[in-house]
UniProtKB/TrEMBL annotation:
It comes from the Bacteria. Coiled coil: none annotated. Signal peptide: none annotated. It comes from Acididesulfobacillus acetoxydans. This is Bacterial sugar transferase. The lineage of its organism: Bacteria, Bacillati, Bacillota, Clostridia, Eubacteriales. The keyword Transmembrane applies.
Amino acid sequence: MVSYLWIKRVLDVIFAFVLLIVTSLIMLGAAIVIKLESKGPVLFKQERPGRMGVIFTICKFRTMRVETEKDGEPLSDMERMTRIGKILRKLSVDELPQLFNILKGEMSFIGPRPLLVQYLPLYTPEQMRRHEVTPGISGWAQVNGRNGVDWETRFEYDLWYVEHVSLRVDLMIFLRTLAIVVMRRGVNQAEGVTMEEFTVAEERTFRV
């Protein structure tokens, strides 16, 4: 696996560089419309744990309004989502800034999605194994339900990838990802825009 991970890193750098050139005009257009539609930064930045739990800053195009409440009431993700944000998510254009994370070695094209830093204390030792590989833009969990699967299943998919990482598996995930983007399915959960929060209650269930 070690030899393949080295080859994978080389391929990540090559394809990320090429895609940055190919999608440069798309990214420029996305940045302009985001800025015109709502106030706030073009990019959404957030700390996430990478390989071996090392913290890095992930970058995505902002798809939500910066306001978190209206008339004193908290706004849901659906209410905060901008019109252009919905389009960017459906087409996965919001993920393009992560190409810079790939060039820096913080992410890969394929791997378990990097989750929130505050989830780290909630993981079981087995679940922590998801950090044995570099996190990715797309992974085994994403092509098997994306945000529509529950946390337990998602972690099972992530661990399966860690144990089976190979060129064949990465190519399979890549092709399935393209199909999902084209068909625009599985972007959001049925009852919300983003994956529901991972809680202590869920973590205790996994320990049983």
